[in-house]
Amino acid sequence: MSPDKSRSRRVGRSRSLAVDLRGTAHLVGALTKYLSLAMLVPIAVAIGYRETPVPFLVTAVIVGGGGWLLEWSTRGASTLRAREGFLIVSLVWVVAAAVAALPYLLSGEAQLDRPIDAYFEGMAGFTTTGGTVLTDVESLSHSLLIWRQLTQWLGGLGIIVLALAVFPRLRVGGRQLFESELPGPEIESHNTRIRDTARRLWILYVALTAVLIAILWLLGATGADSRMSGFDAVAHALTTIPTGGFSTNARSVEEYAAATQWAIVVFMILGGANFALLYAAFVRRHGRRFLRDEEFRLYLGLLTLGALILGFELASEEVAGGETAVRHAVFQAVSIMTTTGYSSTDFAVWPTLAIMTLIGMMFVGGSAGSTSGSVKVVRHVLLGKILRRELDQTVHPEVLSPVRLNRRVVDERTLRAVSSFILLYIGIFVVGAALIAIDAARVGLDLRVLDAVGVSAAMLGNVGPSFGIAGPLGSIEPFSDVSTAIMIALMWLGRLEVIPIVVLLTRHYWRST
Amino acid sequence: MKIFVIGAGQVGTTIVAALHDDHDVTVIDLDPARLEPLAHRYDVSTLEGNGASRSVLAEAGVASADLLIACTSRDEANIVSAMISKAVSPRTTTIVRTTNPEYLEVWREGQLDVDFIVSSELETAHAISRAIGVPAARQTDVFADGQVHLVEFDVQEDSSPTLLGVPVRGAPIPRESKIAAIIRDDAVILPGGDEVIRSGDRIVVIGSPTAAQDWGELIAPGSGKVTDVVIFGAGRAGTAIARLLLEQGIGVRMIEADRERARIVSEALPRARVFNSTGIEPDFLERERIGDAQVAIFAMRDDMKNHYAATLARVHGVGFTIAIVHDPPAIEVFEHAGIDVTVNPRAVTAEEIVRFAHDPRTQQVSMLENDRFEVLDITTRPGSEYVGKSFRDMPIRGALIGAIVRDGTAIFPRGDDILRAGDRAIIFTESKRVPEVERAL
C-alpha cells in the first residue's frame, strides 16, 4: 500500500461515526437489566392467584441476562455526551416495549400470540397510550393483566427517570437523557441535581398512586362501588396517575359507579399537571405557585371549555342528560385531554361535533413535566405568544418583545424548539393519518377518514382509543400489520416528543462534521 | 463645618463652589491639574492623592471631618473612601455618589455603611419627571411581596386642592392607604385627624400599589394625561428614567441602537416597548409615528447624537423635548436648537449633595428608617393582648399599623377590623418604640 493511500484512508476515517455506539449499548444494556426486576410484581400476583409465573420468570432471565451480557460485552471507557442521549433514550424505549411484549408471547395467550401484536401492546403500555389489540381483555390472567397495567405505571414518568430515582449510582450522566424523556420543553432553569429531581418526582408519583389505590379500595370496601375489587383498585390506580388508560374491563371505567369515575377524574387531572408544581404544592406547601402558573391556568381553562362544549353537545343532541351528561362530558374531556384514554361511556358513538372536539383536545395534552402525552399546554401558550409577537413585528419591525412565561423571559432557542416541535408533530400526525387511511384502503378495511385522523392523533398523542373501530370498546385488531407498525412508530415518536428520534435521521447527528 | 470633598471633577467643583464660603473645605483628587484651578478660585485646601487610600485620608486629617463627600466618577472608590472615613471617625457624615442603582438598593437595605447615597441616574430621572410635570414619589419601599407600598411624596402648590389645607380626616385619602407621617421642616408628625397637609410638606404614605398610584394623582393632578413618552437611548440613565415613568403608569417607548443593550432592557422592563433602531432614520420615525409622542427624552451618551436626534424629533413634530446634556457648555447649543429642557446629570447630582450638606437632616424615609423611624414586619403572637381587638381600640402610640398580611394577602385594616393571631403586621413606628411594639404583639 502506498503512503498516499494510507493517508487518504486516515482522512476518510476521521469523517466517520461521531457517536459512541459501544457506550450507548453499554448503558442500554444496564438499563434493560434492571427492567427484569419489574417481573417481581406479576410473579407475585401469579403466585397469589395460583397462576403460572413461568412466562415472567423466563422473561426476567432473558431480560436480565441479555441486558447484563450487553453491558458486559461493551464495558470499557466510554464517552457519552449529550449526543448519545438521543440514541440511548430512543433505544431504551424500543427495548422496553419488547420486554413488555415477552410475557404476552410466552404466556401463550391467543390474542397476543403474534409478535407484532404483543409488541404493540407492549409499546401501548410503556408509552401510556392505552390502545390495545385485545378484543376480550377480561379473559387475560390476573398476572398478565397486572403486568399490562404495570407497564403503563413504569412508563409514566419515564424509564430512565425511574432508573435515576431508584438506582442513583447508575452512571447516567447528562441532563439530555433526563430531558428527552420528561415531557415538555426545557424552560425551568436547571440548578438542582437531576438525581434529586428524579427522586422527588418518583416519591410524589408513588404517593399519588398509593392515595388513589386507597380511595378506590375504600369505594369498593364500603360498598359505594360494588364492582370495585382490591385488584381493580390497584390496577386502575396504576394506569390513572401515568395517564395511561389500560383497564381490566372491556367497558373500561364505565364498569364502575359514578363516585369512582369522579375520583378518577380528579387523579387524571393531577396526572396531567406539572409534577414540579405538584411537589411544591403538596410537599413545600406553595399552593399559590399553582394558581399563578400560566400553563396550569390554561390547562384548567381548556379542560373546562372542553367539558362545556361536550356537555352542551350531549344535552342538545339528547345523548344524555342531567348528572350523566355532566359526568360523561367532564370525564371524557379530562380523559382525552390528559391523554389517559379511559372511557366512561362509548364516546365513539357521540355526535360529530363532540368527536371533533375530542380530536381537538387530543392535540392539547397535559402540562409539561406531567405524565401526559401530546403537545402539552405550555407549548400552546408559547406558540400563541410567538405568533402574537410575529404579528406585532410585522407592523413594527424594530420592536423587541421578549416572550415571557410566568413573568420570566423564555430564551429564543426554546421558542424555536417549540415551533419546530409543533411543526414536526403536526407533520407526523398528517403522514400517519394518511398512511393508515391508505393502508386500510389497501387491505379493504372499512375506515372513515375521520377515524384514520382519530387513530393517528390518538397514537401520536398517547391517548389510546379513538373513534370507529378503534373506539373505546373496539381494538386495533382489525388493522393490518403495516398499520399496526405505523401505530407503534407513532406511539414511540409521541412519547419521546418526536425530536430525539427525528434527530437520529439527520446526517449531522452521526457525523462529526 | 469641616468638609472633605473627594474628586474635583464637575460634581466636586460644583459642590465646592456652593460650600466654600460657609465651610472649611478640603478637596482631594489624583489629578493636580484639576485641583489647581479650584485652589485659585476658591479659598479651599487641596491635596493631591488617592481619596480611597487610608494614609492619604489620614494625612488630610479626615478624623476631624464633619462631612465627607465622595464624588469621583468611580463608584467603588467613593464607597471605599466613605468606609475608611467611617472607620477612622464614626461621627463623620458620609455622602457617596454612585452611578449604579444597585448600590442605592444595597444601601437602602442597610447593608452599606454610608449615610447618604446620591445616584446620578436617579436624580436625573427625577429631574426629568419633574420637568414633564409628573413629579414622582421620592421613594418607594415595598413589603409583603409588593403588596404593601411605603411611598414618600413632596406635596406641591399644584397638588390637588382637595388635599391642601384640609384636615386629614376630611381629605379624600385613597382607599387602602394611610398617611404614616408628615415631614415638615425638621419635624416629623404622626398625623391625627386634625392635622392639615400643606404645600412643601413631604408625606409618607403606606398602602396598596393602586392606592399609591391614586396618591400620585392627588399629589400631581393631571399626571395621568401623559401616556406616550419616547426615550432615546437605553443606557443606565434612559433605563432609570423609563423605570420611574413606568412606575407612574406612563406608557414608555424606548429606542436603542445597540441590539444587545436593547434586548437586555426589553427583558428588564416588561411594560416598555423597546425598539432596536438608531432613532434617526426617517423611515423608522415615520413608521412608528414618533412625532405623535407627547414627550421625547434624549438620554444617549453622546451630546451630539442627542442634539441631532432631538432636532430631528422636533422636525417630526414632537411637542416637548428633554435632553440630557453631559458637557455644560453644550446646554446653550441645545437651547438654541429649541430643545425645551436640558438636564445635566452632574449638576443635578451636585445640587442634591449640596442640599444635603446644607441640612444633613433633610428627611428621607430611608434615613428615617435607619434613624428615628422604622418599618416593622411582625407576626402577631397568639398571646398578644391585641389579638381579637378591633384596630380602633388599640392604644398603640407613635406607631401605625399600615397593613396586615393574612394568609398571604395584604389587608388594609379599617377601624372595625379585628387583629388575629398569626397576622403579619406592617408597622410604621418611631425607633424608640420598637421594643414596646414588639412586646405588645
Count of helical regions of chain A? 23
Reported by name, the CATH topology of the largest domain in chain B is Rossmann fold
Query: What is the class of the largest domain in chain B in the CATH system?
Result: Alpha Beta
Q: pLDDT average of chain A, as an integer?
A: 89
- Helix and strand element order of chain A: HHHHHHHHHHHHHHHHHHEEEHHHHH
Placed side by side, the strands forming the largest sheet of chain B appear as 3-2-1-4-5-6
Shape of chain B: globular
Determine the CATH superfamily of the largest domain in chain B: NAD(P)-binding Rossmann-like Domain
Provide the CATH architecture of the largest domain in chain B.
Answer: 3-Layer(aba) Sandwich
Shape assignment of chain A: globular
Structure description:
The complex is a heterodimer of chains A (513) and B (441). In chain A, 64% of the residues lie in helices and 1% in strands. With 513 residues, chain A is an all-alpha fold. Chain A has a domain at 414-510. In chain A, strands 2-3 form a two-stranded antiparallel sheet. In chain A, strand 2 (404-405) and strand 3 (408-409) form a beta hairpin. In chain A, helix 2 (21-35) runs parallel beside helix 5 and helix 6 (115-126) runs parallel beside helix 21. The longest helix of chain A has 32 residues, at 412-443. Chain A starts with a helix and ends with a helix. Chain B has 441 residues and is of the alpha/beta class. Chain B has four domains: 2-122 and 350-359 and 362-367, 3-Layer(aba) Sandwich (Rossmann fold), CATH 3.40.50; 135-221, Alpha-Beta Plaits, CATH 3.30.70; 224-339, Rossmann fold; 372-440, Regulator of K+ conductance, C-terminal domain (Alpha-Beta Plaits, 2-Layer Sandwich), CATH 3.30.70. Chain B contains 15 helices and 21 strands. In chain B, helix 1 packs parallel to helix 13 (345-358). The longest helix of chain B is centred in the N-terminal third of the chain and has 14 residues, at 75-88. The two termini of chain B are 44 Å apart. Mean pLDDT of chain B is 83; it is low at 360-370. The A-B interface holds A 288, 396-402, 404, 407, 409 and B 262-263, 266-267, 270, 273-277, 284, 287-288, 408. Strand 1 of chain A pairs antiparallel with strand 14 of chain B.
